[in-house]
Amino acid sequence: MDYKVFQKKLIESFAGNMLMFGLNLFMPMVLTRLYGADIFGSYIYAITIVSVTLLLANLGMDMGLLYFIPKTGKKYVSACFTINIATSILSILALYFLMPESIHAYLGLVWLLSVEQLFFSIFRARQDIREFFAIKGFVYIGGLITISALLYTLRGPLEVNIVVAAYTAAFCANIIYFILCKDMFGKLEMHKAFITYSMTIIIGGVMGLLINYIDIVMIEAMMSKVDVAVYKVGAELAMIPSIFLTIVNTVFPPVISKLYGEGKIDEVRNMYEKLTRYLFMVSSLVIGLILIFWHPILSLYGPEYLDGKMVLYYRAFGQLINASVGSVWYIVIMTGHPRIRLIGVTTSAIMNVTLNYLLIPRFGIDGAALASMVSTVFINILGFFVVKRILNAKVYYII
């Protein structure tokens, strides 16, 4: 393993993820101030439903590509994109008949964003981190912000402006992804091993999506779109402690797959232990700053967002635990144990849904954040001990 190359890719991942994080914090500021918290909340709700559906559109094939490309090259790429067309159409039709009319305008994004996920796996597997984030940051998110602002000046605060901006930006980004990855497409091939792996991933992924998104869906059902917007901003800010884990997770998984497949378990263990110790130190420092400066941070979005204080606190603590155990579930998946992840995330998802149902009526968005924190802590502590067993790792020397 060339550690200099790995360090270079970590730096590229750091730059790309920080760009994404900054743009994802900047976007709510712009859209809320131009269109109001109600329209922005409507957009967040629709995008959340679309995001939940992406797993069904991809059937776990994005993770399948991430696992298999380091081993088999481009063998399954064309088949995955072809299957994605059919599954995206079926997913869109299901949402059209099952979900409220208010999100119908966004349904085409199911295909565009699921295709982007497949491309992301290709870029990650090939370690082309910088190129992917440049396109996603400047073309997709930057385009969404810019086009939304431009249409606002021409047509006023209409939600359809955001819809048009989202489609335009996503379509342009995917065209560029394809141009850069066209060498990965060839004849259609599929194998039982790929299907079995991906199907196990999708079931666990559905449960993972419940952990990540069910709070927003239930807040919208029980409260208001303004509450959705306030909660979303608090939850996004709370991701700050785990941004460094995301940086590692962008680069580390294909490395795990390759090294573990070659029998270099000691090398995987040493990398995991060192990276996780660094993650703990950096994340602890960042969460301390969040606890101190929560008021000026939330004030940037408007006075109504100050109600998200406890959302920020609860979610940030959960993400601190997430960062402190490192890339545990990627290690589980990339070492060929997706069924263990399935059991863990299923248990955590049931816990999250149950707690949201019990706590939101009583505590509002704070209850949703508390539910998310509890389920996040559970799934990550569980993953920590699973990886300890797989790699015989001792991240913190004693455990």
Radius of gyration: 20 Å
Q: How many E strands?
A: 0
Alpha-beta content class: mainly alpha
What is the typical, i.e. mean, pLDDT?
Answer: 90
Separation, N- and C-terminal Cα atoms: 26 Å
**Unreliable runs:** none
**Judging from the principal axes of the Cα atoms, what is the shape?**
globular
Instruction: Write the H/E string, N to C.
Output: HHHHHHHHHHHHHHH
**What is the strand content?**
under 5%
Main beta-sheet strand count, sense and barrel state? none
Number of domains: 1
Summarize the amount of helix as a percent range. Answer: over 70%
The number of helices is 15
Structural account:
The two termini are 26 Å apart. The chain has one domain. Helix 1 (3-58) crosses helix 5 (129-155), helix 10 runs antiparallel to helix 12 and helix 13 crosses helix 15. The chain is built from 15 helices and no strands. The protein is mostly helical and 399 residues long.
